[in-house]
Structures are given as structure tokens and as C-alpha cells.
Amino acid sequence: MDTSSIRIKEDRLRQDLLDLGRFGETASGGIGRTALSDADLAARQWFKERMREGGLEVREDAAANIIGRMDPPSGSNGAPCIATGSHIDAVAQGGRYDGALGICAGLEALRAIRESGVSLPCPCELLVFTDEEGSHFAGTFGSRAMFKLLQEGEMEKSRGAGMASLAQDLKRMGKDPQKIAEATRSPSEFRAFLELHIEQGPVLEEMGVPIGIVDGIVHLGRYLIRVIGKSGHAGTTPMHLRDDALIKAAGIVTAVNEAVRCAGPEIVGTIGEFRVQPGAINIIPGRVEMSLDLRSMKEEKLTSVKRQIEKIVSSADKARMDTILTKGGVRMDPDVMMTVELSCRERGIPFHRMESGAGHDAMTFPMVNIPAGIIFIPCVGGKSHCPDEEIRFEDACLGAQVLADTMVRLAFRGPLHPLP
Ligand code: GLV
Ligand code: MN
Ligand code: MN
């Protein structure tokens, strides 16, 4: 398959990334664009307009996923589509490229395919998923909603007291959470899904290689740890009569960190959220809530460390640990990976096969037997989920080109696997 006529336009991609980076921009130079926040809603409006200008037919589903479709020039022929996409939401104080790169490059890839005059035998779709980062409850909400993989009651839950649930925020934007099933699509509508993303780690930069081809994604467990104490006056309650939830929580934090470190390099664990209530300078903390995120390529390792941590929590006074969500690790599709590899070879672009410690919407697709792949580009200093997140723009262009070429190659191949 000759894809030499497909050429992404660098200036257009650069401008889209710059413009999208203005939604939720913070004084520290980072992005605050959590899912369905005002900044996210504004960014979504803007991006839908860009998709329409790019010639896509745009709709939004019941889970607030944005779907842009490009049918073959001869019209919709009922063939399963080749899809690409990522997320537009960002973590609380995140960077400009996590998710944003995938949707902007996906749009550029589709524009480049259309402009090349190559007539594809099947439709293409650009999918912008809702709340990949899990700012409401669990991550990859939109992609899981699309394939009926949400947990019972998940949409009504929030990450902590006083925080909005997805059901509340969907209502705020005029959607009916009761109708979430309307977002469901059949896996047979998709021939393959491909996501371009920043690596979010240091490997590619250290190797000096511009493209990563992801073999698999880690197993992930997310938990909520709650510690109860007794709030009271900070000035009048003697130290020996206190039941301070924060002091008890601090013991749990250090014990958890120790347990994960001692388990070796195959597992990582992070307590990234910590809420102290009532949270005032003159009140003894009565309640603490904290998150725990555990990840490993080895499921047994994750299970054994989780058990150890459960023991730590249950031996503390008035503390409990609940599961927010577990996601089994996935392997990406060998045919899709080989096709990405071929696209790199044809353009003489060096690549490296690797695993991903970060979760992505692409991990939802193998769960319903849709062949999926992930293409990485390096990020400067390996930094991500922070305002310093940065890329080299030339890598973004290479990534977008490999994405466009691979989508075309996949479109001209027969079905990758028979569906069950
Ligand atoms: C998503 O960014 C994750 O937490 O891996
Ligand atoms: Mn992220
Ligand atoms: Mn991401």
C-alpha cells in the first residue's frame, strides 16, 4: 500500500494544539481542564467546530463522547470503521498534550487522508472520550460507556464528599444519565482503534527514538482509604485526649509507601489525593479520605501488595479501604502493532516496542475484541500529569503521519480478526 500521497500539515496541527492548550490554561503554565468542567465544556465546543470544519459529521452520544465520522466518498457502505481518538479532559494541574495530542493528531490524520484523494473502502471515526482521567470516579468513562462496561451505580458515585458525580455533571450539560445505554455501540461497527499519545515516561527520550509501539498496558487498581477520628477544638483539647484522623492517616501513608517499595521495581503505588475534613486551622481533623493507585504488569504482584495494604489499613483504628475500580492489563493487537511498524519502516522512522504504565482509552477496545493499538511519542524529561509536560513538535508530526498512514493501511486490509 503506497501512502506517500498522505501528508499531514504541520502548521495546522501546531495551531490546533496551541489553541486547545488555551482552554483551562493556568498561571503556572499548565492546564486545569477536568472532565465536564467549564474549561472542558468550552474546549469541547471549540473542538467540535474544528471537526466540522475538517469535514467530519459530528454528533455527541449519551455519555458525552464526541464522535466525528468520515464516510467513504461513495457514501456510507455499512463497513466497520477504522477509529482513532483520545480524550480532551486533563488532570487537575496537568499538561497540554496528554489526550490533546491524540485528538488533534487524529483530526489532522483524517484531514490529510481526505485531502490526499485516496478513496478508503470504509468509514473513519474520530472519538473524543469523556473523563478518561477519572476526575469524577473511575477513568476511561466514555470508552467504557460506549461498550457497556460501566459498573453498576458507578455514574452516581463521586471520588469524595462534596464532589460531583458523572450523573450530576451529565445532567448539568443537559443529558439524561438514565439514558446512558443509548451510548452503546456494537463492536462489529469497528475494524480497529488506534490512539496516538505521549509516552508520559522517560524511555523514548533516553533512547533517542521518536515512536513507541505499545505491546501492553499495566494492571491497575484504584482504591479509596477513609480514616475516621473525632473533630474538636484545636486550642482546648489536650494532646492525650485527641483522636486525630490525620495523624492516623499519616501512619497509613508511610506504611503503604514502605510496602510498595519493598515489593520491588515491578509495582508502583501512589497516594495522590488527600482530603482532610473539616479542614480548618483550628479544628482537629475528624476525617481523612485518600486515594491509592497501584499498577503492575504482573497481576499476582498487584494482588499480593493490595492484600498487604488491606492488612495495614484494617489494623489501623477506624480505617477502611474500598475499591474504586480495577482494570486488568491488556495486550495490544499484534496485527495492528505490525501495521504501525510497517508505517514506520516505510517512512524510515525509528521505533521501539514497549509497555505502558499509563492507562488509555485504547485499553477498552481489546476488552470487547476490537483490535487496538497505541502509538507513543516521547515527552521532554519524561514528564506528564504536571504543568511541565512538553513535547518536541517534530515528534508530534511524525506520530500524526504514522497514525494517518496506519489508518489507511488498516482500511485497505480485510477484517483483522473474525468477531466472536
Ligand atoms: C491516565 O492518565 C492514567 O492515570 O494512567
Ligand atoms: Mn492522563
Ligand atoms: Mn491520556
Structure write-up:
This protein is α+β, with helices and mostly antiparallel strands and 420 residues long. The chain contains 11 helices and 16 strands. The strands form 3 sheets. Strands 1, 2, 3, 4, 5, 6, 14, 15 and 16 form a 9-stranded mixed beta sheet that branches. Strands 7, 9, 10, 12 and 13 form a 5-stranded antiparallel beta sheet that branches.
Number of helices: 11
User: For the CA atoms, what is the radius of gyration?
Assistant: 22 Å
Distance between the termini: 28 Å
Kindly name the structural category: alpha+beta
Strand content: 15-25%
**Main beta-sheet annotation:** 9 strands, mixed
- Average residue-wise pLDDT: 95
User: Roughly what percent helix?
Assistant: 25-40%
Ligand names: glyoxylic acid, manganese (II) ion
The number of strands is 16
Taking pLDDT < 50 over at least 5 consecutive residues as the criterion, the unreliable ranges are: none
* Shape verdict: globular
Give the topology string: H per helix, E per strand: HHEEEHEHHEHEEEHEEEEHEEHEHEH
Short description:
With about 425 residues, the protein is α+β, with helices and mostly antiparallel strands.
Features:
five-stranded antiparallel β-sheet, 22% strand, binds glyoxylic acid, alpha+beta, 420 residues, 11 helices, binds manganese (II) ion
